Amino acid sequence: MTNPLTDRQRQVLDLIERHIxxxxxxxxxxxxxxxxxxxxxxxxxxxxxxxxxRGAIELTRGRSxxxxxxxxxxxxxxxxxxxxxxxxxxxxxxxxxxxxxGSPILAAEHVEDRYxxxxxxxxxxxxxxxxxRGSSMRDAGILDGDLLAVHAAxxxxxxxxxxxxxxxxxxxxxxxxxxxxxxRVELVAENPDFAPIVVDLRQQELTIxxxxxxxxxxxxxxxxxx
Amino acid sequence: MTNPLTDRQRQVLDLIERHIxxxxxxxxxxxxxxxxxxxxxxxxxxxxxxxxxRGAIELTRGRSxxxxxxxxxxxxxxxxxxxxxxxxxxxxxxxxxxxxxGSPILAAEHVEDRYxxxxxxxxxxxxxxxxxRGSSMRDAGILDGDLLAVHAAxxxxxxxxxxxxxxxxxxxxxxxxxxxxxxRVELVAENPDFAPIVVDLRQQELTIxxxxxxxxxxxxxxxxxx
DNA sequence: CCGATGACTGGATAAAAATACAGTGATGAC
DNA sequence: GTCATCACTGTATTTTTATCCAGTCATCGG
Lengths: 226, 226
Known about the structure:
The structure is a homodimer.
Chain A: H1 7-23, H2 29-36, H3 41-53, E1 57-59, E2 67-69, E3 93-96, E4 111-115, E5 128-131, E6 147-152, E7 161-166, E8 169-176, E9 184-188, E10 197-200, E11 206-217
Parallel strand pairs in A: 3-5
Antiparallel strand pairs in A: 1-2, 3-4, 5-6, 6-11, 7-8, 7-11, 8-9, 9-10
Chain A binds a DNA duplex through residues 6, 8-9, 28-30, 38-43, 45-47, 50, 61-66, 179-180.
């Protein structure tokens, strides 16, 4: 018995599961709409009704966040198998420095070091640490030289801080997306000195490399100044 | 060393767990009040605050049903007590939440959790993680809720970020001291909204508890906003 | 071409929830 | 005796949240 779910419904279902795992509570209609870029919470409502009709979830009328997952039979589609060569049972994480153009982030020559940090400290799990260059995310508390804990993923939700590759350059920004924008996304800095980067997907290729799940700053010791 | 929870608090905690198990979502304040017979939802609110202070749950401000169970230490306190005190050879660090007035920072009841991070990652070595409250060090990239890696020390140098105790309150600030000042030091916030605290050592006792050696931020995952 | 279905926008509204404020007793420490 | 903490009552007020209504556009089977 395969799933009669549509792709979009599958995405909504995955989002619900992810939301419960990361926040402890199911999402509201508005949160679903925001995460998937809908401009109306009613779109989320429609999806929930459809999922309930198909038996994937159970809704409790009138109760806020009254969404319950039923029998998680199928494996989720979202990039579960992509962690190539990463030991999930490891107690440490590789730190990635400057990434050369054209090569994958996790290529061995990019690994500067390994740090004794449990990957499962973060939710979702961190796959590597990326050394941040520049101050474009300053107001999000991510400073030059910080190590960003990254969960490797090919997709991200509106509002998340992502590691993206644009024109073969790797950058860290907040992702902005709307349902109305078909060929457009924005990479927004968290610092008024930097303008948002508007990406036209018909002209430029944008690859999501992962989502930020934490920050680690070492070397706070010395009496250095900003 | 049993739970620092009172009987009533334990009952509330059990109820929350039961509610999640049976309905799939955490309870609201009104539902807690109703289940335990309170006539005011505010009674539930008070209990939740107390449980959060003790690290049994985590509350998300403004989010309906934003209650999360932390580290299910087990219903009853079994013989195997948790590692209290200072294991130097450990691979993890204790995280300290709110520090009660008059008691030492590393007292067992302040330990919210332990995180798998090698103490030697930091220089000098970190002895514990302190959960930062407030935004007074915002411009140093230390945000509300961050975990500050702290090296226990009784002295610090000018310009270092320190964990200090003043009037029995623990605070994180940058230390300012000049050779010319004999009885004076300043604790400077890294945020223009906070004025520097000028300390006259003849009148107030200032204790250095440690110096900041790093920052760790978890929970960067969800699409939450600042 | 028609009607059903999926995937939405936009606006409105009532109910549900969080949370602030002001109190009351009781208990135990100092 | 005073103070802090716990365990509440009661009243507001503001946000959140669920949910309804009225449409639009595209696709697909018949």
